[in-house]
């Protein structure tokens, strides 16, 4: 008997569609803020990881590639990927890079720095991306933020894809910075709620075992 499909089961389309749009107009990269804001809003408002469990298109996409298309080796990932020290170290590194992106954006807005029409993958490899920017009536700062956001989204997609190939489909969920942030918010919000805390502790193990 097949499990009934819901509308949110098709949110995996968001990830490839987002990356596809970035090839034609980099300003579409602003849509990436959806994946930044909604998980935090839900965690603060509801005190749970509903977004990660149900609405995360990226997790669904990796699950589709790994399980449906059989691209995953289905190997248990190294324990350090889901360890607290690694997850928070990666979160700090991620937020540091995000802060640098914001600083660069502010400098372009203030015209103290010129727009860089490049996409940086894995925070190291710079790819020319001027073909996706035809100018805007607004400040180049909006474009600079878009280039930075697309770089972050592409980098996280590459990391998730690699760990999906090597290990289990949703291994990315074990160390996703947004997952770590929302889990922290949930623990603080559910402080004293034993069931809520235990549920959050089991989240990572459940996801990477799928």
From TrEMBL:
<keyword id="KW-0812">Transmembrane</keyword>
<feature type="transmembrane region" description="Helical">
    <location>
        <begin position="85"/>
        <end position="109"/>
    </location>
</feature>
<feature type="transmembrane region" description="Helical">
    <location>
        <begin position="147"/>
        <end position="167"/>
    </location>
</feature>
<keyword id="KW-0472">Membrane</keyword>
<feature type="transmembrane region" description="Helical">
    <location>
        <begin position="20"/>
        <end position="45"/>
    </location>
</feature>
<protein>
    <submittedName>
        <fullName>Membrane protein</fullName>
    </submittedName>
</protein>
<keyword id="KW-1133">Transmembrane helix</keyword>
